[in-house]
Specification:
17% strand, 36% helix, Oxidized Rhodanese, domain 1, alpha/beta, two-stranded antiparallel ribbon
Amino acid sequence: MAAERIDVRTAAEMWRAGDLVIDVRSAEEYAGGHITGAWNLPIQLLPLAARDLPPGPVLTACSRGGRGSRAADLLDLDGRTAFVIDGGTEAWRAAGLPVSTGSEPGTSRQLRRHGRLNGRQR
């Protein structure tokens, strides 16, 4: 079964509600611009790190949606409720939604709700 694709407007509502967004691109791509608050979890690390994600829905993103779709499908196969943001970070940016640069997720409600990944505070 494939994970559901959601439009940017629906993704933004879920993001505002505190649902976790993961960006599955490389650290370099992520640093160049990502959805504010998204955790960076490159797709090749997803099989090992998925079990450490907090419970609840997960939204996946990449640049345009290809890798995000594969990641959401992997999470779905693992029994997680996962959604892919249709159009990825580019669609998010085009909609005028918050984008951050650098290696940190930025600030959002989801950081306060979930903490941080990769050995940081949880």
